[in-house]
Hints:
Elements: E1 2-3, E2 7-16, H1 21-35, E3 40-49, E4 54-63, H2 65-68, H3 79-98, H4 107-116, E5 118-131, H5 141-154, E6 159-164, E7 168-174, E8 184-189, H6 191-198, H7 203-212, E9 219-227, E10 233-234, H8 235-240, H9 243-258, H10 262-281, H11 288-294, H12 302-312, H13 316-337, H14 344-361
Antiparallel strand pairs: 1-5, 2-4, 2-5, 3-4, 5-9, 5-10, 6-7, 7-8, 8-9
Amino acid sequence: MKAGLDTILITLFIKDSTGENYIEVGMKKVKECLEKLRYCSNVEEKIIEKEDSNIKKINCILSYPRFYTETNAHLIEKKEECIKVHREFIRKIESTIDEIPNEEMRYIHKKSFKKNLKIKITRVDTPFTFDLEDQVFKQQLGLLKFLKEVYNEKVNRGTGVIISKENIESLIMADSKNIKAYNKKITIYDQEKKFKDIYGHNPKVIERILKENQNLKNRLRIEVSKKINRGEFSLSRFKKFDIYSTYVISYAKYLLETLFDENLIQEILNRRQHELEIKIDRMDWNKYQVFILENLEIIVDYTLVRKALMNAIENQNTAYKACEITRKILKEISTRQEIEYFNVLDKIKKIRKELKKIIKKGVKVNE
């Protein structure tokens, strides 16, 4: 599993209590600068009026991958990559101010503007990418449904929604009934499908993305997004801020505690196994395939139904035979429906193990 930084939502602002014209000039130039940067999007200016002052704000989404390539398919894996983005971002802003003609902004005002311009981070999006190896995203419907159940039980008032059209596209889980009003959100989605939707009008771009990222179709991308309330940064402090170490590790912990909670997962599996055992005890053995089809929502993985069969059937030979039949039926269903019912729980264990490695390897930096 690879962990990285995707985007942050930032606000640039300066508290204006003097009504000086140079602030208007400076904010206009900063906005124009950001609009020209490939890695900045959704640039918008807002003015909050108060009795004694105005706070002029520029909101902007800063993308770390798009600093290096044209899309976010590029995975940011090192803190140095993020710091490089910060340094270039601040350099662009400072040089933009320095280049303003003296008749529009005097040197003393340029110096004051740069000193008083602040940056506030209000949202951080961090992706964790798991390699499905020889499988693709659309086969993971059973896994997504199970993780949705884990999340809804773990997070009080949480909401999990699976979005699909022709194929399964994403699972969105938020800590509020209204997903748009979230403070914390986890999204698992098909990155290849997303790029094809965005750049479908440009086959050459799609071809280049797929060539540069040949395992894109095998990626399970788990993106954590949190709205944060952090103190403001000066330009010089933001330039040196190690955002990677600060948030990637804490977000990995959040995933481990929320979506991959070992105790809760085992509790849900125990309930499902018990439910299957009761149904097996009452099962019409002449309608075995019907029984499997009717209980696919419970059978997240072959190993679960195997345990239930071995526990519920007293005659071990009969139990083993039932397991063989079940395995064969599930294989046929997996092929026909393109939904994986094998090694699903192994994937969850591997992801949990990888998250623990990320946490162990990382060092939290206090800024």
